[in-house]
Structure formats: structure tokens, C-alpha cells
Specification:
The structure is a single chain. The chain is of the alpha+beta class. It is built from ten helices and ten strands. The protein folds into three domains: about 110 residues, Orthogonal Bundle (Butyryl-Coa Dehydrogenase, subunit A, domain 1); about 100 residues, Butyryl-CoA Dehydrogenase, subunit A, domain 2 (Beta Barrel), CATH 2.40.110.10; about 150 residues, Butyryl-CoA Dehydrogenase, subunit A, domain 3 (Up-down Bundle). It has a four-stranded mixed β-sheet with strand order 1-4-5-8, with helices on one face. A four-stranded antiparallel β-sheet has the order 2-3-7-6, with no helix packed on it. Strands 9-10 form a two-stranded antiparallel sheet. Strand 9 and strand 10 form a beta hairpin. The radius of gyration is 21 Å and the shape is globular. The mean pLDDT is about 95.
């Protein structure tokens, strides 16, 4: 895909930021499992916490291709940062922009765009995934919400939660503030990868919200979930491309430096074959991501395109992770090198936003309905 001048400018800016600001601290952030508050603050100043938000609400209003570029470039250094931005932009701002009333937009989009407010999306539940058990009971002037939510990206620091709860037989989205009475954030979950993404669980104990806190009207939660995940998974696919590209680049560099039997291992045919296979997987996946982003920008139906992109990109990242460890040998298995981090983060990308099996089901459905 030929990038526009503006898209190239964004790519150059993010790449420089990644190299100078994020890459030097990525290993320590992962090791300490720390939410990268300073990095996120700087990204907010660059406009990347408001990528989907119009200028009237203090946003940067980037197109989908640029959104993918930002996520990919940052994820080359630390996947957690890409994941944080996807959750904030695609799963919180986009639903408010698409389904919120004007007062909700004025109240939240500006503060979300400049980083004063961090958002989180609360859908999954323990032992039920997206089979929602959380209940919202109607009362005079509002609702009372009770339930528990799991695996919440940004949960550690989030000020605003979009919570999905059952209202009768349907699902409704609610805007819930962190300081609401009855909201309890658990300690960070000890996850395998994306250790700096502030992943927590949430308990809601008779949390009262007003009717003005309903997002998109009662019973429209499923529609909001589908649209939000469609855009989010475009970001997850880009995140996976970034991780895969980083693993490939590190493997090429290491293969030239590592000598065995008097030769760089880059001269060995089996090592060359692994590098070629890694490059092929990443290149193919990137084309699918770019095509899905282009179609998204032109307003086309991209459900199958996004599912294809996420499936191939996350599988490619995992393939690179496994083979990059093989190229590095024992050094790929220790924490002194970032290779094992790429492997761990790649695996999460195959799960978050809908597993690879779910993506295959979406693709099959689209094919059979065509």
C-alpha cells in the first residue's frame, strides 16, 4: 500500500518515539509489570489517545490506516502499549463517539483524548467469557448493577469503564466511573504476556448509575460490542504485525553475529529458511491488515477482512515467536533478550478480542453467506 504524505509523517514520528522513548524502557516495564504512565502521557500529548475522536472533542481524528501504523510501530518495542491504545481508542472512545448522546460526548471524549481520563472495556466474565451474567436492575432514575468482570485491559488505572450487563433478556452498555460506590478493582492479574497493560478484574456491588449513563440506549449492547471489536481487532492485528516484525529483525541481526563452526549462523541453510518463513508470514499478514484498514476507511463491510487479518497476523506473530527462539537458541529462552517477551505477547494476541477459533467461525459464516 502506498501511504499518503501524512501517513508517512505519522509513521516516522511514531517510529522515532518508539526508538527513543519506548524501546529503552520496554524490558524494565515488562519485568516490573508496571503500567507505562509516563509513556502514555507522552503519547497523549502527541494525540494518540484520541485517534478516533474528532477535533471538536480535542481528538486527532486519524484514519484507520494511520491507527494501524501507530499500533504496529509502538508494538515493535512493547506490545502492552499497543494493547493499551487499542482498548482506549477502539473499545472506549469509538463506542462513545458512535452511540453516545451529545452530552456524553462532551463529558468524556475530550478528557479521554488528552489522557486526563483512561478508559476500559468490561465484557468478559469468569467462567463465562462473553456469556454475560452481570445484571442491571431498573430503578427510579437509573439502574443498579451487580456482577464481576474479568481480564480488563487498563483496569489498573482506568477512570471510566464501559460495563456490559443484562437488562432483562438483552444486553446494555453503561458508563461507570471508577469512584462510583460499589466499584472494586482487584490487584493486577499475573498474566503470561502483555504484563504492562494493567490487566485487572472488576467487582460491581449494587453500583448505582443514572439513566444518562446508559450508552446507546437500553438493549443495544450487542451492537456496540460487535462494532467496537471490529475496529479493535484491526488494532490487535497491527499489534501482532509489530511483534512479528520485531522478532524477525532481532533474529536477522543475531544470526549475523552468532558464529558456529567458524561461520555466522546466517550462512546455514536451515536458519535462512526460518528467516524466510518468518518474513513471508509477516509480509502476507501485513497486506491483509492494510487492505482491511483501507476498506474500513472507505466505509465497506470489513467483518470478514478484519477476521482474516487478525487470524493471519496473530498466527504470524506466534510463528515468529517460536522460530525466533529457535534462531537464538538458549539466549532466546532467557529474559536478558526480548525474544521470550515477543513470544509471550504474541500468544495473548491470539486470544484477546476473540480467539483464532472465533475468527475462523466468522470467516466461515461470511463465506457461506456470500
Amino acid at each position: 500500500m502506498n501511504l499518503t504524505a501524512e501517513q508517512k509523517l505519522i509513521q516516522d514520528m511514531v517510529r522515532k518515539f518508539m526508538k527513543s522513548e519506548l524501546e529503552p524502557v520496554a524490558g524494565e516495564l515488562d519485568k516490573s509489570e508496571s503500567f507505562p504512565k509516563d509513556i502514555i502521557k507522552k503519547l497523549a500529548e502527541l494525540g494518540f489517545l484520541g485517534m478516533v475522536v474528532p477535533e471538536q472533542y480535542e481528538g486527532a481524528v486519524l484514519d484507520a490506516v494511520s491507527y494501524c501504523i501507530v499500533i504496529e510501530e509502538l508494538s515493535r518495542a512493547l506490545g502492552s502499549v499497543g494493547m493499551i491504545l487499542v482498548a482506549h481508542n477502539a473499545l472506549v472512545e469509538l463506542p462513545i463517539l458512535k452511540y453516545g448522546g451529545e452530552e456524553q460526548k462532551k463529558k468524556w471524549l475530550g478528557s479521554l483524548s488528552i489522557g486526563e481520563t483512561i478508559g476500559a472495556f468490561c465484557l468478559a466474565e469468569e467462567n463465562s467469557g462473553q456469556d454475560i451474567k452481570t445484571q442491571a436492575k431498573k430503578i427510579d432514575g437509573g439502574y443498579v448493577i451487580s456482577g464481576e468482570k474479568s481480564f480488563i485491559t487498563n483496569g489498573e488505572v482506568a477512570d471510566l469503564f464501559i460495563v456490559f450487563a443484562k437488562t432483562g433478556e438483552s444486553v446494555t452498555a453503561f458508563l461507570v466511573k471508577r469512584d462510583s460506590e460499589g466499584v472494586e478493582i482487584t490487584e493486577n492479574i499475573d498474566v503470561l504476556g502483555m504484563k504492562s497493560a494493567g490487566v485487572c478484574n472488576l467487582k460491581l456491588r449494587d453500583v448505582r448509575v443514572n439513566e444518562d449513563d446508559v450508552l446507546g440506549g437500553e438493549g443495544n449492547g450487542e451492537k456496540i460490542i460487535e462494532e467496537a471489536f471490529n475496529f479493535a481487532n484491526l488494532g490487535v492485528a497491527s499489534l501482532a504485525i509489530g511483534i512479528g516484525q520485531a522478532g524477525l529483525e532481532d533474529s536477522i541481526k543475531y544470526s549475523k553475529e552468532r558464529r558456529q563452526f567458524g561461520h555466522p549462523i546466517s550462512e546455514f541453510q536451515l536458519v535462512q529458511e526460518m528467516l524466510v518463513d518468518m518474513k513471508t508470514r509477516v509480509a502476507q499478514a501485513k497486506l491483509l491488515v492494510q487492505e482491511a484498514a483501507r476498506k474500513y476507511d472507505t466505509g465497506e463491510d470489513v467483518k470478514m477482512d478484519v477476521a482474516l487479518a487478525k487470524l493471519c497476523a496473530t498466527d504470524a506473530a506466534m510463528f515468529v515467536g517460536i522460530n525466533a527462539i529457535q534462531v537464538h537458541g538458549g539466549y532466546g529462552y532467557i529474559k536478558d533478550y526480548p525474544i521470550e517477551r515477543y513470544f509471550r505477547d504474541a500468544k495473548v494476541s491470539q486470544i484477546w478480542g476473540g480467539t483464532s477459533v472465533i475468527q475462523k467461525s466468522k470467516i466461515a459464516k461470511a463465506l457461506l453467506e456470500s
